[in-house]
Structure formats: structure tokens, C-alpha cells
Design goal:
Elements: H1 11-15, H2 19-32, H3 39-51, E1 56-60, H4 63-73, E2 81-84, H5 91-99, E3 102-105, H6 120-123, E4 128-131, H7 143-153, E5 156-160, E6 168-169, E7 172-173, E8 180-184, E9 198-202, H8 205-215, E10 219-221, E11 224-225, H9 236-246, H10 249-267, E12 282-283, E13 289-292, H11 296-305, H12 335-343, E14 344-347, H13 355-371
Parallel strand pairs: 2-3, 2-4, 4-5, 5-8
Antiparallel strand pairs: 1-9, 6-7, 6-12, 8-9, 10-11, 13-14
Helix pairs in contact: 2-9, 3-9, 4-5, 4-8, 10-13
The chain binds pyridoxal-5'-phosphate.
Length: 372
């Protein structure tokens, strides 16, 4: 067994084979001074919309802006409530707060780690305007019941697809089912830029137009501002990088699925571990491969000492963050999310991870479980 370290994420392995192609694309942007918005952003928007089976994509500065601008463009703001989950990255709730609305949480399903659809209706009040399901770790939330509830109560649905580029729900692409699908192209995402970037997909031409307006300081015509907007533009270099990387995304997602299948095979039946579940409706793309284990922090340290990189997504639920103390939630408010926060451990996962690396992770994990 090799004693080489296994990193949590190896972006270099992902980028080395395409480095020259990406550099050439970046050079074209430099040659044409197409830095802020511009033709390479338009090109990537068209390509990504096609990839998601949507009519439009609006390129923006990052995934947090993507959620926020979608909310603004749907007119959601002060006095409104938006339902989401507490087991997500802080950005989902932050975007709601920055739109002026209040995040209202429902717990997650214990199998899929996405929104527990049986809890949504009880959280709806006369102020509720939208639902933001999070396609956590690369698996879609159970969208059909969410869409049915939204229709019944006249609510907007914004998919948080920051971790799910290329995920399928009953054959439909993440980002194509709600009113809008917000995504992040943060470098470590399945489709990652070489810097910060985000995107919003939609089938709705009017919504697209409003999102573009909000992204451009609220102007449709230069220097004529119809609403107070923001500078939320994607930069041209990131768009050019993303256009190249998008060509390899399906293959990369397949690589993650192969790695997850191998982990599942080698870890099946290991006492004390709960493995991720791929829902029958889903094609999971394993942005994160998280197991659940008690005494997680100790295990993480033992693995780190043996050169195995791991992560925790996420150690503190959003409703228990200091920043949201004013919402008045206590430990115990969302027990499934909280139990997951205490026990999730994300194992090394990237498209190029080799079978030998996976075997090494599993061997060290088993050895550390025996020690712990
Ligand atoms: C679930 C989720 N939502 C939103 C975001 C925000 O994206 P960004 O970091 O690009 O602002 C992220 C990524 O970090 C995320 O994982």
C-alpha cells in the first residue's frame, strides 16, 4: 500500500491536461479586451443554458449573487419569507437576508440530505414568497413535490444548484425545473472557474431580462437606471475558462460517480459508517462524498495525521450560526440537520482520484475506525 498523501481535492490533476487549452482561451479575452461581461460571457451563457436544457443563463460574479439577484428579480424583499434548509452553505440564507427577506428553515431528509418535503407546508405563512431547495452534495432535492406545493401556494422556486452542475432529477437537469436555478462556479465546484463566478438559469425570458438588468446596475440602456441594481457581472476571463471546462464536465461527473461507486463497494458493511444514498429519482454527481460517523472530529484528525485530506460540510447548521442568533433558533430546532453537522465527514473526491488512492483512503479509514 502506497503511503502517498491523498488530498481532499486535487485541482492540479484536473487542470493539467487542459491547461494549454484554457490558457489559449484566456489569451483570446486579453487580445480582445473582453474583460467585464462581453462576448465570452454571452458565449458561455449560451453553452451553459444548453447544457442545463434551459432557454437562458445569466452569468454573474459568484453563486451568492446568483441566488440574491434571482430573488431581487422576482420582487422578493422586505417583509417576505423564503423557505430553505439549515444544512447548506451560509450563502443560501445570506442571499435571502440581503434581499431583505427572512430565511425560514425546514429540516432535511435523513436519506438524501436535501429538503424534507413533508415539512414545507407547515412552514408556509401569508408572508412566504419562495422556496429555495438546495441540491446538496450533487444530489437534487425531491423537486416534484416542491414544485407542486409552490404551484398550490403561488410561490417562486429558486434551485440552489451550486453543488449540482449536471445532476439529474428524473431525467431533468438541475437548474431547469424551478423559476430559476442559481449556481456557483467557485474553483472547487464540479464546474469551477479560475476565480469567482456564478450563473442563473431560467426558462423565463422576462425573468432573464430582469436579472440582466439587476446585474447591470439596474439599467437596460447605459446610464439610464430603472431600478437600484448592482454590479453582478461575470468577468470575461472566467467565462472563457468555463467554456473550455464545460466541455469536460460530463466526463468529470462520470469520474466522480465511478469514485463514489468504488467507495460504496469498499465501505459497504463497515460498522459505524453511514454511506451516502442515491435516491431513486436522482443521478447523483458527488460534488461531495460525505459519510456519517460518530466521534468525527477525532477520526478526521487521525486521518489527517496519516495524510488523508477530509472536510466537513458543514460543521454548524445555518440556524445555529452566530450571525442568525436573532432568528431565535435553539439546538434541537432541526434535529436531522444538526445530527448531520455533528457526524458528516467528506472523503477525498475529485474526478481524477485513482482506484489506488480510494483503496488507500479506505484502508486508512478502517484502521482509524479501529483505533478511535
Ligand atoms: C450550496 C451553496 N450555495 C451557494 C454557494 C455560494 O456560491 P459562491 O461561493 O460562488 O458565492 C455555495 C458555494 O460556495 C454553495 O455550496
Amino acid at each position: 500500500m502506497s503511503s502517498a498523501k491523498v488530498p481532499f481535492l486535487d485541482l492540479k490533476a484536473h487542470h493539467d491536461p487542459i491547461r494549454q487549452e484554457v490558457m489559449a482561451a484566456m489569451n483570446a479575452v486579453i487580445d480582445e479586451n473582453a474583460f467585464a461581461g462581453g462576448k465570452y460571457v454571452t458565449k458561455f451563457e449560451e453553452e451553459y443554458a444548453k447544457f442545463c436544457d434551459t432557454k437562458f443563463c445569466v452569468g454573474v460574479a459568484n453563486g451568492t449573487d446568483a441566488i440574491w439577484l434571482a430573488l431581487l428579480a422576482k420582487g422578493i424583499g422586505r417583509g417576505d419569507e423564503v423557505i430553505t434548509v439549515p444544512m447548506t452553505f451560509m450563502a443560501t440564507a445570506e442571499a435571502i437576508t440581503y434581499a431583505g427577506a427572512k430565511p425560514v428553515f425546514v429540516d432535511i431528509n435523513e436519506q438524501t440530505y436535501t429538503m424534507d418535503v413533508t415539512q414545507i407546508e407547515a412552514a408556509i405563512t401569508p408572508r412566504t414568497k419562495a422556496i429555495i431547495p438546495v441540491h446538496l452534495f450533487g444530489q437534487c432535492a425531491d423537486m416534484d413535490p416542491i414544485l407542486a406545493i409552490a404551484k398550490k401556494h403561488n410561490l417562486v422556486v429558486i434551485e440552489d444548484g451550486a453543488q449540482s452542475q449536471g445532476t439529474l432529477y428524473k431525467g431533468r437537469k438541475a437548474g431547469s425545473m424551478g423559476d430559476a436555478g442559481a449556481t456557483s462556479y467557485y474553483p472547487g465546484k464540479n464546474l469551477g472557474a479560475w476565480g469567482e463566478a456564478g450563473g442563473i438559469t431560467t426558462q423565463d425570458a422576462e425573468l432573464r431580462e430582469r436579472m440582466v438588468m439587476f446585474r447591470e446596475h439596474g439599467q437596460k440602456k447605459k446610464y439610464y437606471h430603472d431600478v437600484v441594481g448592482w454590479n453582478g457581472r461575470m468577468d470575461g476571463i472566467q467565462a472563457a475558462v468555463l467554456s473550455v471546462k464545460l466541455k469536460y464536465l460530463a466526463k468529470a461527473n462520470d469520474g466522480r460517480r465511478r469514485a463514489a461507486a468504488r467507495y460504496n463497494q469498499l465501505l459497504a458493511g463497515v460498522a459505524g459508517l453511514i454511506l451516502p444514498v442515491e435516491a431513486a429519482y436522482s443521478r447523483h454527481i458527488y460534488h461531495i462524498y460525505a459519510v456519517r460517523v460518530s466521534n468525527r472530529d477525532n477520526l478526521m484528525k487521525l486521518l489527517g495525521d496519516r495524510g488523508i485530506g477530509t472536510g466537513i460540510h458543514y460543521p454548524v447548521c445555518v440556524h445555529l450560526q452566530n450571525a442568525y442568533a436573532d432568528l431565535g433558533h435553539k439546538k434541537g430546532s432541526f434535529p436531522v440537520s444538526e445530527a448531520c453537522a455533528d457526524t458528516f465527514l467528506s472523503l477525498p473526491m475529485f474526478p481524477e482520484i485513482t482506484d489506488a488512492q480510494i483503496e488507500q483512503v479506505v484502508a486508512e479509514l478502517k484502521a482509524c475506525l479501529a483505533l478511535k
